[in-house]
Amino acid sequence: MKGPSKLVRMDWPLFFIAILLCGIGLMNVYSGTRVHGSMASALFAKQGIWIAVGVVLFFAAYYMSDGIIEEMATGYAAVVLGMLVVVLVAGKIRGGAQRWISLGGFNFQPSEFAKIAVVLMLSRYFSGKYQYGGIGLRETLPAIGMVLVPFTLVALQPDLGTAGVFLFILAGMTVMACVKGRVLALFAVLGGSVIPALWSFMKDYQRQRVITFLDPERDPLGAGYHVIQSKIAVGSGGILGKGYLQGTQGALRFLPEKHTDFAFAVFSEEWGFLGSALLLLLFLLLIYRLLHLTVRSQDRFASFACGGVAVYFLAHIVINLAMVCGLFPVVGIPLPFVSYGGSSMLTNMLALGIAANLSRSRFTFQGGGLKGREIAS
């Protein structure tokens, strides 16, 4: 397939929605960091560079040959798991967590790229096991094992927020794979019974986050400070907001992590309810487009992967917005395209590039996997 024909088959709405969200995020990063003077310009410029690199990564993934992404899924997952092991052995420690690999002046989080690895591995597995009568317990257990490996490695960093996203992806993709209802009910019961045991494995600051979520007013100047200031920022925006660069919670340093975890609070204060509603609409359009590609794809692996990417974005959006509004414990999950961060931006663009690539071609299939596949157009 030649280059021009690939561009014709590009899902341009998906790409332009992402670029629009990137533009909003870039403006928000400048607003959230301008209090630092020259540092605001530095972070603004870095985010612009990450967006540009992300666009290149998007098209690099999009232009991959038909079928190569499925073939590379296992190798990609092996490389990412290797990096997660390196993080535990020699990763950079920041804020009490060992989550980064440092290469020169660039620090990146392998756990971000592990999210794509989980989607691809589950897609490859479920595409081979899918059956119209539903998947039973025996077929589901290997999928759980695939997720538990990266889950454990990331949880040991510790980063329970990102590890939780893996479980969110697993849950969503088991539903897409038509796992039988009684199997899902069994896992729901087992998962609920494990939650109390997790308390003993949590770090002190992680337990404090849960306690603060339940009652942020018990320590308003300490553990509850982040959530309280975030809710003040969101609520003070009113209907129309205070105007761009006119927010006070971020500019006066009341709001911590205002360009990363709490980026939505800065946006909501400046643009108000209407601006926030428009941002949520863009996110809904992004999810809708990914689900559209999921339904349209006639190849099982492509359909599962596009659906998995949709679940990946939905998990980040729901958890981050709930966290900012005090409806979920603070777990450090970025808002896609809006929060500052190189690893997050590259992962987001790579995920969309993979979805665009897999939805590009029409296939008919006879059985799962690469065998028996014929190009229909």
Please tell me about this protein's structure.
By secondary structure, this protein is mainly alpha-helical. It is built from 13 helices and 5 strands. The chain has helices at residues 3-8, 12-33, 38-62, 68-90, 110-129, 137-155, 160-176, 181-201, 204-214, 225-236, 263-296, 300-324, 342-358, and strands at residues 92-94, 97-103, 106-108, 363-365, 373-375. The strands form 2 sheets. A 3-stranded antiparallel beta sheet has the order 1-2-3, with helices on one face. Strands 4-5 form a two-stranded antiparallel sheet. Helix 5 (110-129) runs parallel beside helix 7. The radius of gyration is 21 Å and the shape is globular. Residues 362-377 have low confidence and may be disordered.
Features:
single chain; 377 residues; mainly alpha; disordered C terminus; globular
Poorly predicted residue ranges: 362-377
Largest sheet: 3 strands, antiparallel
**Helix proportion of residues, in percent?**
55-70%
Order of helices and strands: HHHHEEEHHHHHHHHHEE
Tell me the β content. 5-15%
Radius of gyration: 21 Å
Main sheet: strand order: 1-2-3
Report the principal-axis shape: globular
Task: State the helix count.
Answer: 13
Distance between the termini: 10 Å
Query: How many strand elements?
Result: 5
Mean pLDDT: 84
Overall structural class, as computed from helix and strand content, comes to mainly alpha
Write the layout of secondary structure elements.
Elements lengths: L2 H6 L3 H22 L4 H25 L5 H23 L1 E3 L2 E7 L2 E3 L1 H20 L7 H19 L4 H17 L4 H21 L2 H11 L10 H12 L26 H34 L3 H25 L17 H17 L4 E3 L7 E3 L2
Antiparallel strand pairs: 1-2, 2-3, 4-5
Helix pairs in contact: 2-3, 2-11, 3-13, 4-5, 4-6, 5-6, 5-7, 5-12, 5-13, 6-7, 7-12, 10-11, 11-12, 12-13
